[in-house]
Amino acid sequence: MRIAYGCYWNAYVDDGVSAKITLQERHWREHGHETRIFCLTPRSEGDKPPVVRGELFPFEGGRERVAETRALTRAIANYAPDLVYLRYDIFIPPPARLLHDFTSAVEVNTDDRREYRLRGHHVRIYNALNRRLVLSAVDGLVCVTRELADRAASLGKSTAVITNGVDRAATARTAPVRSTRVRAALLVGSLNQWHGLDKVVRLAHLLPEWDFVLIGLGSDGAPAPLPANVEVHGLLTRAEYAPLLAACDVGIGPLALHRKGLEEASALKVREYLAHGLPVMIAHTDTDFADASPWFLLRLENNEQNIEAGREAIRRFGERMRGRRVAWQEVAPSISAAAKEAARLEFFERLLERSPKRRHPSAISR
Q: What is the topology classification, in CATH, of domain 2-165+336-364?
């Protein structure tokens, strides 16, 4: 297949999503497919090199964003792919014609209607238009949880549930730390309220015998006041924060999905913690472990008071996990990206077999 991967992300930030995009495309190439990433991205500050490799469409400001979105759409069409894979986001204008003309699949990472409602009235209104145009034109959906697939069932599209994965080679597994205090890490990623940064700070007040490491957060973004057992690290590359994770006992996943009306996730940060060997605490159902209760995973209730109500369970979990590491062999069958990308490619093939569009004429004539 010839696959065009369209996305909107900051291509200059070395975070979990950038790593996921790169990882997906690499696996497709390793399976013998021809691929290219087309990424709409905020313009880089200075001469910072991109993390996401491909055709980049940098913008600054609304007018330039519209122009670069149109340029991205034209570039994908000129590439004449067999299949367009689009990471769902707000595109201005929506690439509906592109998805209508080519066999296409959209990756659904969240309930956009609920999430964008939290961003304000105008965003919610525009997303309603974006969603209608994009999802009516697409051939298939790839949802990262079963919950999202259930919510998308009314669209009547071919749907696959493929959770987020991680590559063992991309992480550094280290020996367990030997310390007298539990150290817990949070990969902040963003200040979106459903990550529960405020809950982690509350937990630090409740557990003064623990140390908390906040990674990817500037001091101006940290809730105040911070207790003495919290250390803050700014935006770091994955290689730069790997030693910080190596010095911790526990990773903290999303703690407030209830704020955007979700019960289930397959969070990238949870998979990264596990790939580093860290046990994890979460407050939702993880799709890959929904039918199991592994020793290395603490699941809190998904509500506003889960930190206070779960304080003793959290404390006991931390003490049990101190000085322990999760073996890759224990989690690889659930979180390894290799099988997930093979399943994604099989879904692409099924879409092409059933799509009346089949190959685009310019692709057939190659």
A: Rossmann fold (3.40.50)
